[in-house]
Amino acid sequence: MAFPYEDxxxxxxxxxxxxxxxxxxIIMKALIRAIDSLKLDKNKVVIASxxxxxxxxxxxxxxxxxxxxxxxxxxxxTGVKLARPELSIIVVSGDGDAIAIGGNHFLHACQRNIDMxxxxxxxxxxxxxxxxxxxxxxxxxxTTTTPYGNPNYxxxxxxxxxAAGATYVARSTTYHARHLEKMILGAISHKGFSxxxxxxxxxxxxxRRNRMGTPAQMLKRWKEMCxxxxxxxxxxxxxxxxxxxxxxYHQEERPDFWEEYQETIRKAKxxxxxxx
Length: 276
Ligand code: SF4
Fold this sequence. Notes:
This protein is of the alpha/beta class. Helices cover 41% and strands 17% of the residues. The protein has a single domain, classed as Rossmann fold (3-Layer(aba) Sandwich). The structure holds iron/sulfur cluster.
């Protein structure tokens, strides 16, 4: 039986704005399947976004959704979580939105370990605004603002997420759709701040400029380039160089921000009672 995606979509907002061959639809479907597998009540799921092509996703899915300002989705989502801790909060964000314009919010959401999931749609450029360089653009890649090749090296999303305090950190790609679903499912199930980096394609603003072929050819690259973290460890050094590891990178347990904040409130109330 075909998966009932339509149960989770707002048909009135179709057709979507995404270009043919864009990876965003694959991520949206993986996210829906993960939520369905967890049997979450649709009325207790909040999906928030900032600005960008990826950030149009909340408009298309039938949950409680927030389309906020550029880079600020985590700040809005933090407010929702503190007011309604029982809700499952998922933030969807492009690479520019999450780690450039929203970079400061990203670091502090990791540090607070606030119980929510951030899915980063990493297509290596600002697609919606015309294909400008972003912190995840590979070294020497061409964008509208790096016409002679990007002089910067890529931002290490997984390493920085872990270093800043995120307690679930994983990576997948749009080629590995089932694997992606599993990583998102693990992230939503995890208590604490979860980051899932999804390597995907913007064939229009980025792929064309870098002569990467058709959307299908771009997608196939992920199959050729990616191996699991476990498989990576078994590769000889000369084969590791051009490979990208995918899977669960880091997971740990520690109290989340809401729990810690309750303790602060308890201490404050005790003090007020003592002084009364
Ligand atoms: Fe997708 Fe790129 Fe088109 Fe935006 S510009 S919808 S990221 S292909």
